[in-house]
Amino acid sequence: MQQTDTVVRGAAVSLQGLVKHYGGVRAVDGVDLTIAPGEVVALLGPNGAGKSTTIDVLLGLSTPTSGAVTLFGRSPREAVSAGLVGAMLQSGGLLEDATVAETVGLFSAVYPKSLSAAEAMRRAGVAEFAKRRIGSLSGGQRQRVRFATALASDPDLLVLDEPTVAMDVEGRREFWAAMRAYASTGRTVLFATHYLAEAEDYADRVVLLRSGRVAADGSVAEIGARAAGRVISARVPGVSAAELSTVAGVVDVQSRGDAVELSCVDSDGALRELLARYPQAMDIEVRGAGLEAAFLALTSEGAAR
Ligand SMILES: Nc1ncnc2c1ncn2[C@@H]1O[C@H](COP(=O)(O)OP(=O)(O)OP(=O)(O)O)[C@@H](O)[C@H]1O
C-alpha cells in the first residue's frame, strides 16, 4: 500500500497498522490511531504496553517495522523539522553545565516561528530559575525545563511521555494549568501517563494500550462504562464485611468502620437483598466502577485481546 493511501487528511496524528518489533518482542503490534487537531488524548497502559515505543516511532526517533505514520499529513521528520511538533520525553538529554535560559534559547533559536526563550520559560513556569545550571535542578524542575523546550517552537502538536514524573503536587498543578492554556488555543496534545486521574481530569479521549495493541479508545466516560459492574457505597452498622460478601451479586467488599464499598456484578439485585437483609443500611450511593476498574479489567492478564 502506498503511504498516500493511508494518510488521513487533516489529522494531527495518523498511525496506520503500526508495528514495531525488537527481535522477538512485539512492542507495538498493529496500532491504528487517528487524532484530530484540537484533541487532548491520554495514552494509558501497563508497563511494557508499548506507549513509549509508539511515541518514539511517532516522533521519527525510531523506524517502524511496518505501517505508516503521518503528522499533519507529513512524515514525522518533516513535521518535527518544520517546528510543528514539540516533545517531552522521559530521558531527553539536557546539558548539565548550561543554564535554563541557554537551554531553552537553543531550542527557540532553531525554528522560524518559535516563541522567545523568555516566553517559553514563562509559559512553562521556569523563569524564576532561568539563570540556574541544569545540573543544580531537582528532577521536577528539569521536567519543567523539558516542557519549556517542547513549547519553544510554538508547536501545533505536543507529545508528552509521562510529563509529570518527579514533579511535586504544586509542580503538577502548574504543569497542567500550562498544558490547558496551550490546548485551549485549539492545539493537539498526546500524553502518556500512569496517573489515571490525569487522564480523567485533562484528556478528551483515552487510548488504552495492552501488549502493543489498542485495547480501548474513547472518552473517559465511555471507557469507564465498559468496566462491568458498579460500586454501592453505604453505611451498614453492625454487619461484618464477611457477611456482606454473601449478598448475591457482590464480588468484593472494602470496609472502614460502618462505611462499606461493595463492588457488584448486579448492583440492582445486590441493593434489593442488602436492604431486605439489613434495613438499617443508610447513606446509599451507586456509581459506575470508573476508569480504574476499566483499566484493570481491560489490561489484566486474562483480558480478551
Ligand atoms: N530498544 C528496545 N529493545 C528491546 N526491547 C525494547 C526496546 N524498547 C522497548 N522494548 C520492549 O518493548 C515493550 C514495550 O516497551 P515500551 O517502553 O514501549 O512500553 P511502555 O508502555 O512505555 O512501558 P512503561 O510504562 O514501563 O514506560 C517492552 O516489552 C520493552 O521491554
Automatic annotation (TrEMBL):
GO MF term (any one): ATP hydrolysis activity
Top-level taxonomic group: Bacteria
Any one cellular-component term (Gene Ontology): plasma membrane
Membrane-related topology note: Peripheral membrane protein
Annotated localization: Cell membrane
Name recorded for this polypeptide: ABC transport system ATP-binding protein
Keywords on record: Antibiotic resistance, ATP-binding, Nucleotide-binding, Transport
One GO BP: response to antibiotic
Domain ABC transporter: residue ranges: 13-236
Record-linked PROSITE patterns: ABC_TRANSPORTER_1, ABC_TRANSPORTER_2
Source organism: Kutzneria albida DSM 43870
